[in-house]
Amino acid sequence: MSPRRNRPNRAAKPEPRPDGDRHGLERTESWRGEEWVMRPVAGSGGKTYRCPGCDQEIPPGVGHVVAWPEFGGVDDRRHWHRPCWNARDRRSAKLQRSRGAPRH
Q1: Residue 43 CB partners (closer than 8 Å, separation 6+)
Q2: Is residue 66 a contact partner of residue 27, using CB atoms and an 8 Å limit?
Q3: pLDDT tens-digit profile of 6-18?
């Protein structure tokens, strides 16, 4: 008897999605009466983002979520911490900043 192999079948290719979605984890969620497209990001790149949920920075290399209105453009994308995105309905719209805090 030969040993078991756990190698992926290289010949099998994933089926293209009929809606043309290139990103398998991308999904649409409803929030504030609007449809939002949400995509998890592994945290690559060397850019720092500011989370609109907690107004804290998302450093490079940290996994997070990118969300934008369904019919919005590139400028409408927002980068959220995953817990902040999940708690977006429980967060207030008023952000409290100290006097010396930068406004990004």
Answers
A1: 60, 61, 62, 63, 64
A2: no
A3: 766 655 555 554 4
Task: Write the DSSP symbol of residue 95.
Answer: P
Q: What angle do CA 29, 32, 34 make, to 5 degrees?
A: 55
H or E stretch covering 83 = helix 82-86
Q: Which two tokens stand for residue 19?
A: 């809606």
Closest C-alpha among 63, 19, 61, 59 to residue 40: 63
pLDDT digits (tens, 9 = 90+) for 54-68: 989 999 999 999 999
| 17 contacts: CB under 8 Å, gap ≥ 6 | 24
Q: Can you tell me the distance from the alpha carbon of 93 to that of 100, in angstroms, rounded to the nearest whole number?
A: 20
Could you tell me the residue ranges of all domains in the chain? 27-86
